[in-house]
Specification:
The structure holds two protein chains of two kinds. By secondary structure, chain A is of the alpha/beta class. Chain A has seven helices and ten strands. In chain A, the strands form two sheets. Chain A has a six-stranded mixed β-sheet, with helices on both faces. Chain A has a four-stranded antiparallel β-sheet with strand order 2-1-4-5, with helices on one face. In chain A, strand 4 (62-67) and strand 5 form a beta hairpin. Chain B is elongated and about 90 Å long. The chains are: A alpha/beta, B alpha+beta.
Chain lengths: 271, 369
């Protein structure tokens, strides 16, 4: 099976001299259709930087990112934008909805960016919002929604152009337990049902249940912690509280059992 | 298609209204004053335009209609007898006071009623031919505004002397006052100006050599100035500008600059407040061109609505001023369209800083809470 996303030996260095910081150091990763990948790591470990690089938003200082075999940073700016629009769906911790647009229009705009307009876009937006059970909030502005509802709008928007890849940054970070579980369920169903590749950066251990692979990023280095086909690597707690310290502790525990061998799903990066 | 620009503008309706009304005020300043300029200059050169003469004769260094000079009547006679001249007509100018119920300032024109070059236009009532009779007067209706029971045949006072009203016109006015017409003889009696005229306008026969005629007229009359109609018209307008009408352009300039500043400031403020939204759009896949489009559409929409508000206000103010004072602005569609185009250009120019901010925002900031 071909990888949807390949991250090949990517490094990201900020600053120089004494202020030089290596946020990501030689990370490699391949994401396949139908797969949920979880990236854990303490605050400041470079998770968001890595996600930005994967999403075509931040050019790495070294390495390559490919979507469907196409190196995204070799594309002209406009093409990168189009690729982001059609191939990647973003889900953010802070939702990042456009507050001046209604729920329906937030999704419709995404479709417009992808080249769908008019009645078709409207119907598709309504259909997506119905799937995330927000058909009664179509004409609401985001400010009038709860956190869980906003995140569901964000997911509907991410799915608008049928992307193959979903990149989620702390998708449960601003949600209570019930809403967090609902969002995790939606994301895992996306991977299984639509055969999307889903990459989730999180502190939330609830997401561990749905992950096919768990990676840990520390000091810019990405390590495989567990794989679905190697469940002995990690046994998640049934209901861990959503507290960063706890998650860090879980992550540390996972690191202790991490496979020190290079992960089997590391892509064959072109040199 | 969702118009992001329109959604941004209408999301905060109060801000949008304040912006377009402020812009409308700036546009009122600019467009009304441009209209006044065209109105004032149009009124001032109406006699030149309607005369259809090729040459205008004045004395010495006097070179425009609002600075009457004194020519000997012999100049008129000489002009009439030149080969190639179809018609030469005298025009006398004076200010006067017309007393009906009260005293009203008017511009008194002395003309030869048999001469085609200077005829009152837009006759509302009466007979221009009656102006050939002694002590008769044609009055513009602007001079009669508010006067009670004035009828044709009534005796009115002009400069303290009685004249009979024989016709009423409409729209015959200088930039400052309505015009009344008398024949040259009556004019002399009213003003005491004898053996002199202020201007002579000459219409040539087809094929006549204009330079030859100028040369012949100038021969032996070095103090005459013979000016082609186009130059005379321009000199009249320039004379007005130098007499203070030029100040209008300062107000026009200020209006346009204020309009541009309003656009620049509101666009900049709105863009800075929405930088994160632009970052979100970029992260979601909006191209740079799309971002340009969003900012420009906002600027152009604000300008278009502000212009419509300003234009409506301009026409309203013009109506009020015309009703009260008789001073009319003129708004040629082409000039209004040019004002709009200029305002749009200024708005685009004023949006460049905002566009730069919006296009350069780092989309990766969307990952920051």
């Amino acid at each position: 099976m071909d990888a949807l996303l390949e991250v090949c030996d990517v490094s990201m260095v900020f600053g120089d001299g004494s202020s030089r910081v290596t946020a990501v150091d030689g990370a490699s990763l391949a994401v396949y259709p139908g797969e949920v990948i979880l990236i854990l790591g303490p605050s400041g470990s470079g998770k968001t930087t890595l996600l930005s690089i994967m999403g075509g938003l931040l050019r790495p200082t070294q390495g390559e990112v490919m979507i469907n075999g196409q190196s995204i940073y070799d594309l002209p700016d406009g093409e990168t934008s189009r690729l982001r629009c059609r191939e990647i769906g973003f889900v953010f911790q802070s939702f990042n909805l456009l507050n001046f647009l209604t729920v329906r229009k937030n999704v419709e705009v995404m479709l417009n960016l992808g080249g769908v307009s008019g009645r078709q876009a409207r119907q598709r937006a309504e259909q997506l919002l119905s799937q995330v059970k927000l058909d009664h909030r179509l004409d609401f502005y985001p400010a009038k929604l709860s956190g869980g509802e906003r995140q569901r709008v964000s997911i509907a928007r991410a799915l608008a152009n049928d992307p193959q890849l979903i990149l989620a940054d702390e998708p449960t970070g601003n949600l209570d337990s019930a809403n967090g579980r609902a969002v995790v369920k939606i994301l895992s169903e996306l991977a299984r049902g639509r055969r999307c590749g889903v990459v989730i950066v999180t502190h939330d251990s609830r997401v561990l249940d749905v992950a096919d692979r768990v990676l840990y990023l520390a000091d810019g280095k990405l390590n495989l912690v567990s794989q679905a086909d190697a469940p002995e690597a990690y046994t998640p707690r049934s209901e861990p509280p959503v507290v960063e310290d706890t998650i860090t502790a879980v992550s540390t525990q996972m690191l202790l059992v991490a496979n020190s061998e290079p992960p089997a799903t590391t892509p064959a990066c072109p040199r | 298609m969702v118009s992001i620009a329109r959604e941004i503008l209408l999301h905060d309706k109060m801000r949008f209204l304040i912006t377009v009304f402020s812009l409308g005020f700036a546009i009122l300043m600019a467009v009304y004053d441009i209209g006044m300029f065209f109105g004032v200059t149009g009124d001032s050169v109406a006699l030149v335009d309607r005369a259809g003469a090729e040459l205008w004769v004045s004395a010495g260094d006097q070179a425009h209609l609002n600075a009457p000079s004194f020519l000997p009547k012999s100049a008129l006679r000489r002009a009439r007898h030149l080969a190639g001249v179809e018609q030469a007509c005298a025009l006398d100018f004076s200010v006067g006071n017309l007393k009906i119920n009260d005293t009203r300032p008017v511009q008194v024109l002395g003309i030869d009623p048999t001469c085609a070059l200077f005829q009152p236009w837009d006759i509302q009532a009466g007979d221009i031919g009656a102006l050939r009779r002694k002590d008769t007067l044609v009055v513009d209706d602007l001079a009669l505004r508010g006067a009670n029971l004035v009828h044709l045949g009534d005796i009115v006072e002009l400069n303290g002397q009685e004249v009979r009203l024989v016709a009423i016109t409409h729209g015959n006015k200088s930039f400052s006052s309505p015009q009344v017409y008398t024949n040259l003889q009556t004019f002399e009696r009213l003003t005491g100006q004898t053996d002199q005229v202020n201007f002579v306008a000459i219409r040539l026969k087809p094929g006549a050599d204009i330079d030859q005629i100028r040369h012949t007229l100038l021969k032996g009359s070095a103090d005459l100035e013979i000016i082609p109609a186009g130059a005379f018209r321009s000199a009249t307008i320039m004379g007005l500008i130098s007499q203070g009408v030029g100040m209008i352009f300062v107000i026009v300039f200020v209006g346009l600059v204020v309009g541009m500043l309003i656009i620049t400031l509101t666009m900049y403020t709105a863009t800075m407040e929405m930088l994160r939204d632009f970052a979100i759009l970029k992260a979601l896949g909006a191209t740079q061109a799309k971002i340009w489009g969003i900012v420009l559409e906002q600027a152009v929409t604000k300008t278009a609505v502000g212009f419509a508000v300003g234009l409506a206000a301009t026409l309203g103010v013009n109506y009020l001023v015309e009703t009260v004072s008789g001073i009319t602005g003129r708004f040629p569609p082409l000039v209004v369209a040019a004002c709009f185009a200029l305002m749009v250009l200024l708005a685009i120019f004023g949006s460049l800083i905002s566009i730069r901010k919006a296009t350069q925002v780092d989309p990766a900031i969307v990952f920051r809470a």
